[in-house]
Amino acid sequence: MRRSFILLYRVRGILLAATVAVLLGFSLFGSLLPDALSPFITQVAWWAIFGMVLGILLALTGPRFLHEAETTVVSSPVVGRWLALNSPATKTPSHGVRAYGQTYAIDLVYEPDGHERPRFGVGPAMRPPQQYPAYGESVHSMVSGTVVRASAWHRDHRSRSKLLALIYMMFEGTIRELGGPGFILGNHVVVRRDEGLYAVTAHLQQGSTLVRSGETVAVGQLIGRCGNSGNSSEPHVHCHLMDRASLFRAIGLPMMFDSIVLDDQLNPVNALPKDGQHMTANR
User: Fold this and answer.
1) CA distance between the termini of the chain
2) Which CATH architecture is the domain 72-281 placed in?
């Protein structure tokens, strides 16, 4: 019973997307269909409503039935001093959603000593990504394994640096959802470790991805550059672990970074920084 429930939980996103698409299609184009199809349309609409309700219930109740997985220690995908945002060390799900295996995802923004990064609410509402120190910084594989997905064609858009721009980004994000997780993550790389763990790094710079699907990579290997592709307000690195190759069906897994220094501490630790906390990683 529990196994069947988790299988349904994994496809909740697909179920919701399909049922919403059916209902939206009937709302927009139902009047154009022949009257003879009305009984069929009514039945399909009721099944779609049932599917949507089921998908919502799965999303709300599913996490209670999931076992807490062991935390996996991985290598930091970045080098230098980075600020943590949306960290699972502060709350889970860290990004407010569990979709696409993001339950324990973290966002990292580059803030090197002696360099000021443009602040939200100050200056233009939409800055070129080149104005941020994170843009173009190296991104490395968190694990050794095989690349199962790599994309590089999404453009790097301007930042969303003021409230109105952020509201625009929220609307834009809704449109991106229609294109699937690839349009949310932008340019990204997924690496499969031997035991079936999948490491995701996202929002890479357009054209910077250095690996292809099927290639073998080593932990710490350069795989791309930090960009501002996908659903991103400013150049940063998004990363998370999950238990499936499919972003639609994956469940997120907890992680921590190997040998990072938090804030001004002296000794490296295996940990994740909390929201607003800096980490320094060396290679």
Assistant:
1) 46
2) Distorted Sandwich (2.70)
Q: Where are the alpha helices (DSSP H) in 136-180?
A: 163-178
In whole angstroms, what is the distance from residue 143 CA to residue 194 CA?
10
Long-range contacts, 117-124 (Cβ 8 Å, 24+): 118/159, 118/161, 118/234, 120/161, 120/162, 121/161, 121/162, 121/163, 122/161, 123/161, 124/161
pLDDT tens per residue, range 186-219: 999 999 998 889 999 999 999 999 999 999 999 9
Spatial CA neighbour of 75 closest among 153, 138, 30, 142: 142
Its pTM stands at: 0.84
Instruction: Give the amino acid at 267.
Output: N
Q: Is 171 helix (H, G, I), strand (E, B) or coil?
A: helix
- DSSP secondary structure letter of residue 1: -
The closest alpha carbon to 130, from 159, 99, 169, belongs to 159
| CA angle (126, 235, 167) in 5-degree steps | 45
